[in-house]
C-alpha cells in the first residue's frame, strides 16, 4: 500500500511538471512564434533565405526588454530594369517595400525581416 501511495505521488508530480512546461511553452510561443524548446539537427547548417528565423509580428514581448537588432550586412534585391523602391513601411520587425512605378513588370511588395535582412516573401498581382 505504501508503494502505491509513493507511485501515485510521483506520477502526480510528473503531471504537474508536464502541465507547467506546456503552459510555459505556450506563453513563450505567444510572445515569439519561432520559440522552440529543442533545436533538431545541427546548428551550424547553412540556412536558405526562406528558412531564416523570423521575428515576432508584434512588439508585445519587447516592451520590457531592450531590442537590439543584429547586424546583417548588405541585402541585394533583384528588381527589373526601370523599377525602384517607391515606398517603405514597417510593422513590428517587418519592412514592406513597394516597388514602382505602376507597370505590370514592376508592381510588387517585398517583405523583409528587419532584424536579419531575410527576404520573407514577394507579393505580385497577376492579371
Short descriptors:
Thrombin, subunit H, 127 residues, rod-shaped
Structure description:
This protein is of the alpha+beta class. The chain has a domain at 55-124: Thrombin, subunit H. Helices cover 24% and strands 21% of the residues. The chain is built from 1 helix and 4 strands; from the N terminus they run αββββ. It has a 4-stranded antiparallel sheet, with no helix packed on it. Strand 2 (94-100) and strand 3 form a beta hairpin. The relative contact order is 0.12.
Shape: rod-shaped
| CATH class call of the domain at 55-124 | Mainly Beta
- How much strand? 15-25%
Named CATH architecture of the domain at 55-124: Beta Barrel
Structural class: alpha+beta
Residue ranges: pLDDT <50 for 5 or more in a row? 42-62
Q: Average pLDDT across residues?
A: 77
The neighbouring-strand order within the major sheet is 1-2-3-4
Please give the share of residues in helix. Answer: 10-25%
Amino acid at each position: 500500500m505504501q508503494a502505491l501511495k509513493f507511485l501515485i505521488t510521483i506520477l502526480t508530480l510528473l503531471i504537474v511538471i508536464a502541465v507547467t512546461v506546456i503552459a510555459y511553452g505556450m506563453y513563450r510561443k505567444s510572445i515569439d512564434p519561432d520559440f522552440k524548446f529543442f533545436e533538431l539537427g545541427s546548428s551550424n547548417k547553412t540556412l536558405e533565405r526562406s528558412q531564416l528565423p523570423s521575428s515576432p509580428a508584434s512588439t508585445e514581448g519587447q516592451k520590457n526588454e531592450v531590442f537590439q537588432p543584429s547586424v546583417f550586412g548588405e541585402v541585394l534585391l533583384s528588381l527589373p530594369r526601370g523599377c525602384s523602391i517607391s515606398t517603405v513601411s514597417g510593422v513590428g520587425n517587418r519592412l514592406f517595400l513597394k516597388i514602382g512605378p505602376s507597370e505590370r513588370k514592376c508592381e510588387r511588395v517585398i517583405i523583409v525581416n528587419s532584424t536579419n535582412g531575410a527576404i520573407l516573401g514577394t507579393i505580385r498581382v497577376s492579371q
